[in-house]
Write a structure and sequence with these properties.
twelve-stranded parallel sheet; alpha/beta; about 270 residues
């Protein structure tokens, strides 16, 4: 039954692909978005994709309409009137939404191959977004949920946000900052952070959950983490200042539980 379901899904996706009009690039329309829209109107406004980059920064665009895919970079910086990404599902490289202050949802977006810039975007959830190949900066944002996000290939900054759980996120290919996320209660499915992980001040966090690997330093100071759980490796320092762990264990005890390459800080006097 499961195989039949997969086959039906593949066939459905192939049919959807056939119905998408492939535009090689906006350069074929003199790099003019309005000319492209007139052409699409003549075709009955089909769902479509664009090859290469698309730069709409500093324009008055309000929606991307039936645009499904952009194979290269999509630049929407300072599009203050932008309210919807329309049918957009895929950006092959970088997506810049910096300053899109009226955008409240990422809609159907599932994949960003490069950097995703959401600074000054007032969204509370990433909804259907599953993959970000580069960095993702959400520091000081209104974000509460990562939605379906499973993979971030670069630096993920969630510092000083109201995030409560990392949900489905399993892998971060750079560093992960969760500094002063006082509402954070769970790391969700997080298993691997390739560089450092800062959890300083996450006072409601009591467990590291499924976390096994941190490639750099691990900061747990001012948290209520009571156990290192599944943690196997820390490639840098381990900061346990003012935690339940610092009251229960000495440095030698910690090193028997976890391979820590750098120094272990138990108290502020160390």
């Amino acid at each position: 039954m499961k195989i039949e379901h997969i086959i039906r899904r593949v066939l459905r996706e192939e049919q959807e692909e056939e119905r998408i009009l492939k535009i090689p690039g906006i350069r074929y329309f003199n790099n003019d978005w309005n000319i492209l829209q007139k052409f699409l109107e003549s075709q009955g406004y089909p769902r479509y994709s664009i090859g290469g980059d698309l730069d709409l920064s500093y324009t008055g665009i309000e929606t991307l309409g039936n645009l499904v895919r952009v194979e290269g970079d999509l630049d929407l910086r300072r599009c203050y009137n932008l309210q919807s990404l329309g049918d957009l599902e895929y950006v092959g490289a970088n997506l810049d939404l910096y300053g899109c202050e009226n955008l409240r949802s990422l809609g159907n977006l599932e994949y960003v191959g490069g950097v995703l810039d959401l600074r000054d975007v007032k969204i509370e959830t990433l909804e259907n977004l599953n993959y970000v190949g580069g960095s993702l900066n959400l520091r000081l944002s209104d974000i509460k949920s990562l939605g379906n996000l499973e993979y971030v290939g670069g630096f993920l900054d969630l510092g000083i946000t109201r995030i409560e759980t990392l949900g489905n996120l399993e892998y971060v290919g750079g560093a992960l900052s969760l500094e002063d996320c006082s509402n954070l209660k769970s790391l969700g499915k997080l298993n691997h952070v390739d560089r450092w992980l800062d959890l300083y001040g996450c006072e409601n966090l009591q467990s590291l959950g499924n976390l096994e690997y941190v490639g750099g330093g691990l900061g747990l100071a001012e948290t209520n983490v009571e156990t290192l759980g599944n943690l196997e490796y820390v490639g840098g320092y381990l900061d346990l200042q003012n935690t339940p762990l610092s009251e229960k264990y000495a440095e030698d005890d910690i090193r028997k539980m976890v391979k820590v390459v750098g120094v272990i800080v138990i108290s502020y006097e160390d």
